[in-house]
Amino acid sequence: MTRLLLSPDPVAPAQLDTTLHQQGYAVLSAASVAQLADCSLAELEGLQAFWRDLPPDAHLKDGGRYRRRRHSCFEVVGEKVTQVAHRAHWQPVEYNALHGGMERWFEPMSSALVEQVAWTKLLQWLGAVSNALKGETPWFVEAHQFRIDTTDGIGRPTPEGAHRDGVDLVAVFLVERHGIKGGETRVFEADGPHGQRFTLTEPWSLLLLDDERVIHESTPIQPLNEEGYRDTLVITLRQGSFQGLRLKAT
Q: Which of 32, 38, 43, 117 has CB atoms 3.0–4.6 Å from 28's, for a disulfide?
């Protein structure tokens, strides 16, 4: 028996800032994302092709082969977006018990993606959302392209379990779902009993999280009939600095 997917309750664009302040997270439809980021749905959908050549993640401690990814870093100051020198992704063990404390080097995002007008607009808009939530400041941005597939029969979007990321704002865009079941999103209060669960199914719908206030995870995926996958774009914004210090030697 197929389990029914619980749909999220997206907020209207005008209610985004208020909702984030009140409950620490908000879901937006793809149309609202396009409206707020001042780009078209067609421009966003045009980015999906860049998920076809993601290299395998070589750092999975559970030995899985289910995750592919790319990673790049940026600084956003007002409307100015600057890509910075390639660097490792690093988190403390307090935020990622499975992979924390490791310098994880991933292949950078392709220049063809970073040069897309829609990409710049997304980062400018997320910087503005962060300014409204936390106060105006430079934002240190990490962007992760993920493909979780069912090569081994099961794929784990969050092998570390329910977690925070050690940043200020987390943006999780669903880019595409194909031939899978599962992948339910769960959001919990960091210091309270309340939580929500739902499944993002619409390409370019978005979950925004105030990382200080909520914990999140996504459940494993399994294939429906043949190998499937779930593509996401995760963008984090942090005040002060990136996590970790070292840059890759050239």
A: 32
